[in-house]
Amino acid sequence: MSITIELLAGLEQLSKTKKSDHEMLVTHPVDFTEVVDYVATKLLEKHGNVFTGPQSNLAPGIIALINDQDITVLPKDTRIKAGDKVTFLSMVHGG
């Protein structure tokens, strides 16, 4: 079972594969910080500091959605389970 991870608005260019869609295999529900850590350590090239700040928090300028809902409106203890989609968007990107 897996969680779908989308890297959009320039973040896909920081991924090792340069693709926007990725899968995170899970055997149980995980919290948001586990997904952030997975993206920073497994999916991104050496630009993890652009994605995360101190203590594995998202860096300023990164918007995160769980099943198309902004994480800021979801309960802090929201668990992410197989079949869910987590989307990360950069508010700052070239153009």
UniProtKB/TrEMBL annotation:
Post-translational modification: C-terminal thiocarboxylation occurs in 2 steps, it is first acyl-adenylated (-COAMP) via the hesA/moeB/thiF part of the MOCS3/UBA4 homolog, then thiocarboxylated (-COSH) via the rhodanese domain of the MOCS3/UBA4 homolog.
Biological process terms in GO annotation: protein urmylation; tRNA thio-modification; tRNA wobble uridine modification
Function: Acts as a sulfur carrier required for 2-thiolation of mcm(5)S(2)U at tRNA wobble positions of cytosolic tRNA(Lys), tRNA(Glu) and tRNA(Gln). Serves as sulfur donor in tRNA 2-thiolation reaction by being thiocarboxylated (-COSH) at its C-terminus by the MOCS3/UBA4 homolog. The sulfur is then transferred to tRNA to form 2-thiolation of mcm(5)S(2)U. Also acts as a ubiquitin-like protein (UBL) that is covalently conjugated via an isopeptide bond to lysine residues of target proteins.
Lineage top rank: taxon: Eukaryota
Biological pathway: tRNA modification; 5-methoxycarbonylmethyl-2-thiouridine-tRNA biosynthesis
Modified residues (1-thioglycine): 95
Protein name: Ubiquitin-related modifier 1 homolog
Source species of the chain: Giardia intestinalis (Giardia lamblia)
